Amino acid sequence: MLGLRHIKAPPTLWLLHYRSGRLVRQGAGISFFYFAPSAVLAAVPVNVQEADFVFSALSSDFQEISVQGSVHFRIDRPEECAQHLDFALDERGRSNPETLEQLRNRLAGAVQVVAAEALQRLPLLQALQQAQPLAAAIQQQLQADGEVQKLGLEILTVQLVSLRPTPDMGRALEASAREAQLQAADEAIHQRRLATVASERAIRESELDTEAAVQEKERQLQQQRQQMAAEEQESTNRLRAQQLQADRQLEAERQELVQLQTANSRTRAEAEAYRLEALLRPLAGLDSRLVQALVAGNMSSEQLIAQAFGGLAEQAQQIGSLNISPELLASLTQAPKRK
């Protein structure tokens, strides 16, 4: 039939069939026949698209930052997007190649606005160090952007490939970073030296503490030895004092015993003297020769001879010479035999 045509779309292409200004069918990967004179077709790609961007922005300290990156997106609501952009197919079934480029440019512009606002709140050095957090913040703000919502877009990822300052500022930052690294290295060396000194000091203090503990232990042992020696000396002195006291008491008892024995002996001697005096008192008025004669009655011959010689000795000055016979001398020198 004249004007009857057939179209078939891949799964990544969303077809919209309009007739008399009304949407009659839509979908991804569909195929159908349509009457060309009265039909309008629009093909919206629903696969993942990429939009690159390069722009410059200012940081909070008014330093220029060159931003380069890309945003990945897809058209989540094709009908809404087709109402704002020209995705219509011509008579040959071809779409306008500039439509997607316009979409990418509009999205890159939205990224630039959001990124510029985010960078204006950060100083240069902090902004250069926060590429990933900044990309996440840009993605979150893009998803809530009114323009993106109106176009029916879904923001998948935002990647910041490069955040760079101007060449002069880059060299200054490199010099500053190099100086900071050198200072950090010097500080690390200094800290290691301090740690070594602290470790040596700790070891020395531990050794001193150990020596002090050993000296304290030796002092305690010395005090214990001195205390034990003092206690032993005190015990020895106590025993010696007790022994001395016992010796004194024993000596006193001995002296008392000797005095008692002496007194007893004196008493016995006085009693014996008194007895002898009482016995001899009747003989006090007798002649000595009579007493000797009475005593001689009980004497042996040797005692009598000895008494006779004693009398001769008393009269020695009156005796001229004395002759003793050998028999008498022999009888005097021979010891008497006791029965």
TrEMBL record:
Coiled coil: none annotated. It comes from the Bacteria. This is NrtR-regulated hypothetical OrfX. It comes from Cardiobacterium hominis. Residues 221-230 have a biased composition (Low complexity). It is a single-pass membrane protein. Residues 9-189 form the Band domain. Pfam families: Band_7 (PF01145). Its main location: membrane. It is found in: Membrane. Residues 205-234 are annotated as: Disordered. GO terms for cellular component: membrane. InterPro entries: Band_7, Band_7/SPFH_dom_sf. The lineage of its organism: Bacteria, Pseudomonadati, Pseudomonadota, Gammaproteobacteria, Cardiobacteriales.
